[in-house]
Please model this.
Amino acid sequence: MVAIDLRRPRGVVGELDFRPADLATTDLVPLLEGVDQVVHLAFAVGPEVDEAGTARANVDGARRLLEAAGVVGVDHVVMMSSASVYGAWPGNPVPLTEEAPLRPNPGFSYAAQKAELERLAGEWRGAHPDAAVAVLRPAAALGGDEESWLSRSLRASSGVRAGDGDPPVQFVHLDDLAAAVVLVATERLDGTCNVAADGWLSGEAVRALLGAPPRLPVPEVVLSWVGAWAWRRRLGGLPPGIIPYTAHPWVVANDRLKAAGWAPAHSNEVAFVESRPGAPWSTWSPKRRQEVSLGAAAATLLAGVAGTVALVRRRRRRR
Model:
């Protein structure tokens, strides 16, 4: 097994031929000599990496990897995408199947770049008719002491909600996601598969598991503005464009992958509880929870109003 990354992965079991490289700059053809299957899991994301940096690392890196795979004769590619590529929209069916169109919400670069990776994989598949490409679209992944960047970002909005939206929530345990990758690679499956626990949870059920206070509605425009402002200054965990994913449904059906032999060993509840320590307010009285929640919502509204006023004043001074 050959592993290509900037740093050697931790906790790897079995033989591993590690080859350090940057997908966006290194000549990958020599590193893939003798390889007949590529499993692409790498993805850079976070406030410390700007939009141009993530595009270079993710999109250009995937393009160069696929080009090198074609040169050496790889006949099977596994591409890690995300269920977020469907977008979170009021009219989404519950659940979404793999036939649903890809409509990532504007401004959410994570989903947009994942969709671009899928487009590149589709182009590569068309140029190599004897090869197969499997694309996995997981829900927010978490479990144990780990969770994906998408899961952490969604968690940052747990105290408030955009408008009146309180959509169903869905997860996949990281162990189940790993099992899906192994199955798809071992069986050399072709096509796209959603990866998620069976069913989904209501927003109310998630808050009950967490012991959290009620989520009071905040205007979506205010929540988006405050989140983007804090993100740019590395003060918050709400990336631009993610707010619709907290307000509208985007849960998926896992029937196709289950038909191929995969079965989630963990429910949504188990995956969620394993990765969430008990919240301090879980022992507070209902009245105290409501008071804290009201205070948080008021602070968010005031921050949004203050930011809007400051922006208007700056524009007037420029005139």
Q: What stands out?
A: The mean pLDDT is 83. The longest strand covers residues 132-138. The first helix runs from residue 29 to 32. Residues 143 and 271 are 5 Å apart (CA to CA).
